[in-house]
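I'll show a sample.
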Amino acid sequence: MTAKSSPLFLGIDTGGTYTDAVLWSEAGGANGKVLAKAKALTTRHDLAVGISSAVDAVLQKAATDPAAIKLVSMSTTLATNALVEGQGGRVALVMIGFAEGDLARDGLKTALGTDPVVFCPGGHDVHGNAAKLDLSGLEAALPELGASVSGFAVCAYFATRNPAHELSARNLIRDITGLPVTASHELSAKLGGPRRALTTLLNARLISMIDRLVAATEGFLAARGIAAPLMVVRGDGALVSAAFARQRPIETILSGPAASLVGARHMTGLDNAVVSDIGGTTTDVAVLDHGRPRLDPEGATVGGFRTMVEAVAMRTFGLGGDSEVTLEDGALNPRILLGPRRLVPLALAGMMHGEAVTVELERQIRAANPSRMDGRLAVRTGVPERLAAGLTGAEAKLYELIGATPLAVDRLLTSNAQNATLNRLVSRGLVHVAGFTPSDAAHVLGKQANWDAATARLGAELFARKRDGRGQAIAATPEAISERVLTTLTRLSAEVILETAFAEDGLDGAATVAHALVQRAVDSHPGIARLSVALDRPVIGLGASAPLHYAGLPPLVGHDCVVPEDTDVANALGAVVGQVRVSAEARVSQPQEGLFRVASGESVRDFNDEAAAIAAAETDVRAIAAGRARDAGTDSAEIEIASAFRVSTVEGQRMFIEAHVVAVASGRPRIAV
């Protein structure tokens, strides 16, 4: 089958800065073929605008009929960003069988904020035996709550062993209010009520947000004549249908990083690797094991909250192409420091604002002595004025001086105290600071050419004039300082990769990398005692700048570094080549001798025989997993079942305690006919 006649697949990734789109065909070799790719700026006010720009560009490049697209899949940072920024709808939390003191555990009270909570008697014990349920207080509160919240989160004590009370509350809420309800047993089978309640609360907040994204995307696809199923990447790298994601949006946190790992494996064929994705602001590092992303066993942490969501174990570092370049204070031979703050590269500022930037940089170069404020300019970000509400007097005065045209910081600030005021405006997203970055260094050396190289060279010349501890200029030429900056970025990239590897091995990653012996090993420092450090697997470098910054990585990490051809759109490609994967769990306990209780899905049944109980649990989870796989978007799921037993031996006799039965269903998503 040729690429022309083969069904086409559209992958979309909405990142923090860019929205990427990829058109891919299964034809063209073992890994298929990327037919076209494009980027557009992410439009945070309306994500569908950025998506349509990227997709339209891909369709134009490929000159293809939109009707030939048979599957659309996307990864998104929307849920992650919302949790980090504290966004989401107002929801009511219903706690059954819990006390008010339980809110103090696992950050639940902090996450709840001013949202309402209702406590009801009820819940179950560890074996699923019920306490008396009383929902009268909830029923009385529902008319008022229904008019003031966007949804409900319900969590009952030991609902994972018996969800009956959650089901009763869910049905009551839906009957009276008609609003969306998330029940905790639908999201996790793990014990730990407050953390399960936290996960349920966050999920309920995100439902309307993900619903708007999916609706906007579906509307755009329909307008373009693309009648294909829409899939979404979960935080563990698996695909689920858009309808599935609408009900469980919490599972899409870390969707983007997970998609990049799937894309990395697809492009390289490597089952075991360290994946390092370098962007403008951050570097994300994770581990591939046996072809799958390594997951965080404790659950994903986003926005400071530890959830029960299975997601990739990703470590994020403030290191990227647009990282702030500074100089170590007080050293005779000061080191180059990078990040964690992002600056607008001078090359980009020069391209956007022309002489307004270059005139100021040339003025500073003509000065007899360098200044700490050289090469820095401030400009408004262009956010609506209402977001500037609540500024202090000093902040408002400084903000008034900054406009849409960059202003040199040495003209703007009249005292060191004002520098802290400027930083507060930056942290609120009201002001950008432009300055010298690794992206500028790359432009100076001719290794990057998408912005204004002349402005970048002025910035490098100013930075090279800075003084070391002996009063000497730190570099002789703009090219020399640029080489040092790029070398530093590669070296720091090696350190964050090694830090991740040490952490995965159970060590304190940061402290281990900082140890003098590891530093000597990375530097290949000559000595009587020769030291070396090496990864046990190669590095896969992702990101548009990975070919540049990771070229010198192998000798520093002791292994190869593979940078795939389509590394700049790894997330979008990962979104479209992934598989559906869902699971179902059952617990078999022995509440009394000779009685075996099976809790699976929304049912609880008793058996008089252990083997019969285990067989019933396996049958249940197989059926539940098959149903969830169909709902998640596949008609060709393969199901694997695994059982784990807890037993003890008393006077030579085996005593059954508990069994945990898990079914995992996986398969390729269904495509349009």
In short: Residues 193-223 form the longest helix (31 residues). The mean pLDDT is 89.
